[in-house]
Each structure stands twice: as structure tokens, then as C-alpha cells.
Amino acid sequence: MTTISMQVNGKAVSGNVEGRTLLVGFLRDHLGLTGTHVGCDTSQCGACVVHVDGLAVKACTMFAAEAEGAEVTTIEGMAEPGAPLGPIQQAFQDHHGLQCGFCTPGMVMSAAALLREVPRPSEAQVRDYLEGNLCRCTGYHNIVRAILAAAETRGPQGEAQA
């Protein structure tokens, strides 16, 4: 067992894990943050995307110990409990960017990473960025619309507008 520590959604956390524990397992099983989904365990679906030190990472491909000392953000960290949805989450709701919801946390996390890198992406850029995220319900049209709408609610530098 190895003791690991990191910041998750702005809070210091630690735990004892086996060396083979994946970050997605640590988040779900040790911390109870079940918004990060396990869809394939092979890095194909993107349902497990989280941010590690600001970068979008598929949590099923990273050992928890590799996140030692890192700042990790999960879907639960995208809006405070009881607070209004974040702009990307609200855009997904407004533009029907979800159906069953299984892929949604990974899509939202990927969208946030894209909008941080490219505050005003084109439709082609959104579609290209989402290549590693699978949705079996929507056909992506409304997901893309939601991300483009979220980009419109952001300022010229990509910051969320009130």
C-alpha cells in the first residue's frame, strides 16, 4: 500500500492505495466521487475524463499514485453544491447535449479543457477535440451545439461571464 495525497476539487485528500489503483478507482471508490464514470477501461470512451493540473486526462489510464501532489478536478468540482450549474453544464442542459447522461461528465470535462485552450472554437475544432469521447445516444450534434453556446457565454479570454 502507498499513501497518496492530492487536491481534489479544491480539497486536500489522501488515502492508502495499491500500486495498481487507477485514478478513476481512487476517485470513485475511495473518495465517493462517482460522477467520473468507468465506461471501457481502455481509454476509448472518455467517460472518465478529469483534469489533472489543468490538463484533461482519462482517469482510467493513470495510476492514482501518479497524481501525488496534483490538483485534480472532477465533474463534481465544476459547480459548488447547491449553486447554479457552471456555464458548460448549463449549456448542455439548455441545448439538450445529453440523453442517458453516461458520457456527459467526460464530455463536460473535455469541453472545459477545450474552451480553456481555444476560447472560441469552430465547430470543426469541437468535433476534433471530442474525438476521444464516445456518446451512443445523441449523435453529437447537440453536444457540439452546447459547447459552442458555452463558448459564446465566455469573455474574449475564455473566462466565464456572469
TrEMBL record:
Residues 2-78 form the 2Fe-2S ferredoxin-type domain. Keywords: 2Fe-2S, Iron, Iron-sulfur, Metal-binding, Oxidoreductase. The keyword Cell division does not apply. Pfam families: Fer2, Fer2_2. GO terms for molecular function: 2 iron, 2 sulfur cluster binding; metal ion binding; oxidoreductase activity. This is Carbon-monoxide dehydrogenase small subunit. It comes from Poseidonocella sedimentorum. The lineage of its organism: Bacteria, Pseudomonadati, Pseudomonadota, Alphaproteobacteria, Rhodobacterales.
